[in-house]
Specification:
alpha/beta, 2 domains, 5-stranded parallel beta sheet, globular, about 40% helix, 9-stranded mixed beta sheet, binds P-hydroxybenzoic acid
Length: about 400
C-alpha cells in the first residue's frame, strides 16, 4: 500500500467516525457498506451431496426472511465443495479463510471434515457455525468462543433411541454403521441409553465410509437373529441401505431403528422401504407449530423441494448469525459482543425454540418418529430439552 493510500484510508476513517458521531472507529469495510463474506464449506458431491444442498437452501431462506441482509449488510457467498473428504479439509477451510478472507465460515456435514475446519478456525479466530457435523470434540475438548453448532452432538441423537428400546424391554440388538467418528459416536450414544435396560448388544458391525456394500453384513445379521438392529446411515447411503434391507427380506422380520438421519430426506427415493421405521431426532416433518408450517411452505415454494432436518439446521444457522450481527449492526470486528449475542439468542426454529448450551451446542427436545407414507411422523417426545453430556469443554 502506498503512503497516499494509507493516508487516504486514515482520513476516510476519521471522517466516517466523525459523521457517525461515535468515539470508536467503525471497521473500514463496514463504513464503506461492504458485503459480509460468508464461506459455505459443504459437500455438494458424493453420498452427502443432498445434505449440503439442503443446508445451503435453509441458510439462504433465513437470510431472505431477514430482508436479504444480515446486520444491515448484504451477503456475498464463497462456496467450496468439501466432498466429505477429511484429507482435503484443512486446505479447503484455508481457501475460505486465507484466500477469500470470509467473515464467517459455515460448514460442514461430515465429522472428519469438521475436525479440519476446527483446526483452521481455532488458529484464525474466524467465526464458525457448524450446521450439521456432530463430532463431540467440536463442542467438547476443542470448543472455543468462535465455534457454534446449530445441529446436534452425535450421541445426543442416539442416546434417546437406546433409552426407548431399553424401556420397551428389547433384549438383543446388533448395531451397524460407517466406521468413522460420527458412526462410532452414534453407536456409543445408543449403547449408553440402551445399557440401562439390561439388554445385550450381540455385535457391532462396521463398514468403511462411504461404502454401500451391505450384502454380506445383511447376511450376517440374518444369521445373528437379533430382536432389533440399530443403524446410522445418512443421505444416499441411507437410501441404499433401506432398499437393500427390504430386498434382503429383513423388513418386518427384525425391528429396524436409527437416529432420524436414516429416514430424513430419503423417503421419496426409497418407495415404501422405510415404512414403519422408528427413529429419534430433534426434528420431525409434522411438528404441529405455526413456525414449522410456515417454514415448510416457504421452503417448498422457494426450492421446489420438501425440507428435512438438514434444511432446518441450515435455516437455524442463518437465524443465529442474523441475531449476532443485528446486535453489532453488522460490525464483525466487535467479536465479543457478537459472540455474547449468539450465546444468548433464542432460536425460533421449525424444530421448536431452543438455546445454546454453554459449550455452544443446542439444548433441544428429541422426538420419537415413525415413517408413515412420505412423512417422518412425530409420535412422541423421547427426551425433553436434552443437553448432551459435554465433556472437556473449557472456553477460553
Ligand atoms: C457426521 O459426520 O457428523 C454426520 C453426517 C451426516 C449426518 C449426521 C452426522 O446425517
Amino acid at each position: 500500500m502506498s503512503m497516499n493510500q494509507t493516508f487516504g484510508r486514515r482520513e476516510f476513517l476519521k471522517t466516517a467516525a466523525a459523521a457517525a458521531g461515535i468515539a470508536g472507529l467503525p471497521s473500514l469495510a463496514l463504513a464503506q457498506g461492504a458485503k459480509i463474506k460468508i464461506g459455505l464449506m459443504l459437500p455438494y458431491t458424493g453420498t452427502y451431496a443432498q445434505l449440503g444442498v439442503a443446508i445451503t437452501n435453509g441458510f439462504k431462506l433465513a437470510v431472505a426472511e431477514s430482508g436479504g441482509k444480515l446486520g444491515g449488510r448484504e451477503p456475498e457467498y464463497f462456496t467450496v465443495d468439501d466432498e466429505s473428504e477429511p484429507s482435503k479439509a484443512t486446505d479447503n477451510a484455508n481457501k475460505l479463510v486465507t484466500r477469500d478472507k470470509v467473515d464467517v465460515l459455515i460448514g460442514t456435514v461430515h465429522s472428519g471434515v469438521e475436525m479440519g475446519i476446527i483446526k483452521i478456525v481455532r488458529e484464525s479466530g474466524v467465526l464458525h457455525i457448524n450446521p450439521n457435523a456432530g463430532v463431540a470434540a467440536a463442542t467438547g475438548a476443542l470448543c472455543a468462543p468462535n465455534i457454534f453448532r446449530t445441529s446436534f452432538a452425535n450421541s445426543q441423537t442416539t442416546y434417546p433411541m437406546g433409552k426407548v428400546l431399553a424401556d420397551r424391554g428389547v433384549k438383543s440388538v446388533v448395531t451397524l454403521t460407517w466406521k468413522y467418528a460420527a458412526g462410532e459416536e452414534m453407536v456409543e450414544g445408543f449403547k449408553d441409553g440402551y445399557a440401562k435396560g439390561g439388554g445385550k448388544i450381540l455385535k457391532e458391525l462396521y463398514l468403511p465410509f462411504p461404502s454401500v456394500e451391505f450384502q454380506s453384513l445383511l447376511t450376517e445379521i440374518a444369521s445373528l437373529k437379533p430382536e432389533a438392529v440399530f443403524v446410522f446411515f445418512a443421505g444416499g447411503g441411507a437410501a441404499k441401505f433401506l432398499k437393500d434391507w427390504q430386498a434382503a427380506g429383513l423388513k418386518g422380520k427384525i425391528g429396524l431403528y436409527g437416529s432420524g438421519f436414516l429416514t430424513d430426506g430419503v423417503l421419496d427415493a426409497v418407495g415404501g422401504a422405510a415404512e414403519g421405521v422408528e427413529t429419534t431426532l430433534h426434528y420431525g416433518d409434522g411438528i404441529e407449530t405455526p413456525k414449522n408450517k410456515t417454514f415448510r411452505l416457504n421452503y417448498a415454494k422457494t426450492f421446489k423441494l420438501q425440507p428435512d432436518v438438514y434444511a432446518v439446521q441450515g435455516y437455524d444457522a442463518g437465524l443465529l448469525l442474523a441475531a449476532g450481527l443485528k446486535a453489532v449492526k453488522g460490525d464483525v470486528s466487535k467479536k465479543k459482543e457478537l459472540i455474547a449475542a449468539m450465546e444468548k439468542a433464542e432460536i425460533d426454529s421449525p424444530r421448536g425454540r431452543w438455546k445454546m448450551s454453554k459449550d455452544h451446542n443446542p439444548i433441544q427436545d428429541m422426538y420419537l418418529r415413525k415413517v408413515v407414507g412420505k412423512e417422518n411422523k412425530v409420535t412422541g417426545v423421547a427426551i425433553k430439552a436434552l443437553d448432551y453430556p459435554a465433556r472437556g469443554c473449557k472456553m477460553g
